[in-house]
Structures are given as structure tokens and as C-alpha cells.
Write a structure and sequence with these properties.
By secondary structure, this protein is of the alpha+beta class. The protein has two domains: 31 residues, no CATH class; 101 residues. The protein contains two helices and ten strands; from the N terminus they run ααββββββββββ. Strands 1, 4, 5, 6, 9 and 10 form a six-stranded mixed sheet that branches. Strands 2-3-8-7 form a four-stranded antiparallel sheet, with no helix packed on it. Strand 2 and strand 3 form a beta hairpin.
Length: 142
């Protein structure tokens, strides 16, 4: 309150006034940017399915993916929804320096850093990849 009275009843320099305005507008933005990010899905043209492999003796699936390179995001992994007739997988990108809520962690390929893998256990029905632009790709059908 003392600062407000000073600005209301005294002459202030442009520096002091500028500092007050910047503080009032920027500080709230800094605190809100620390919140957890909302999951952001990839659009179909931002990620490419490279391969799908059923491991020997398993009922899982390994999906090789190549995300579009971005400076502010990384491929975090996926969220999975199990339905009676299919498994629905949403591919999630996350802001650098933050964590997103995912069910499956993306695995980076050491030999080819631009390729990532998702390992999904218990795949015994149709598996569909879902995208932000309402597109979907069926990548596995038993």
C-alpha cells in the first residue's frame, strides 16, 4: 500500500513507473507458466510410423515412430485407452523442461536418435493411433 500511495501522491520517475508496470504484468505470467502442461497430441503430419513389430513369443507390440523435429517440444510417449474392441493410443508431445501425464514412456533409439519406440503390452485386439486433427491410423489387427 505504501508503494501505491507513493505513486498516487508523489512525482515518480519513468524508471519507477516502468518497473511497477513490468512487475505487475510479467510476474503473474512467470508463476502461471510453472503449472503442469496439458497433454498435447501430435497431428498426423507431425509424426511418422516407421515400423510395427510383434516381439517373439509375446503378445505385445513395438511401434517405431519418427516425430517432426521441434525446438520447444519433445515426444513424451502416449496415453492408452483400452476398449472392448480396440486399443486407442494418443501420441503426446510435451514442452521441453516439463512433464506430461502419460501411460507409456517413449524410448529413444540410441543408433538413430530421431526414431523413438513405444512398447505396448497385451495387444490382443485392434490398435489405433489417434491424432489431434481427428485422424486415426490402424497399426495392428490380430
Amino acid at each position: 500500500m505504501k508503494i501505491v500511495k507513493k505513486f498516487l501522491f508523489k512525482r515518480t520517475s519513468f524508471f519507477e513507473l516502468g518497473f511497477l508496470i513490468i512487475s505487475a504484468t510479467i510476474l503473474p505470467l512467470l508463476f502461471t507458466s510453472c503449472e503442469k502442461d496439458i497433454n498435447m497430441m501430435y497431428k498426423k503430419d507431425q509424426i511418422k510410423v516407421i515400423s510395427t513389430v510383434v516381439p517373439e513369443g509375446g503378445n505385445g507390440l513395438i511401434i517405431g515412430l519418427q516425430p517432426f523435429m521441434e525446438t520447444a517440444f519433445y515426444f513424451a510417449g502416449a496415453t492408452v485407452e483400452y476398449r472392448s474392441d480396440q486399443i486407442r493410443v494418443k501420441l503426446i508431445k510435451c514442452r521441453l523442461g516439463s512433464e506430461c501425464q502419460i501411460d507409456l514412456q517413449a524410448i529413444n533409439n540410441q543408433e538413430s536418435p530421431i526414431t523413438n519406440y513405444l512398447m505396448i503390452e497385451g495387444v490382443d485386439k485392434k490398435l489405433v493411433l489417434l491424432f489431434e486433427d481427428n485422424e486415426e491410423i490402424e497399426v495392428f489387427s490380430p
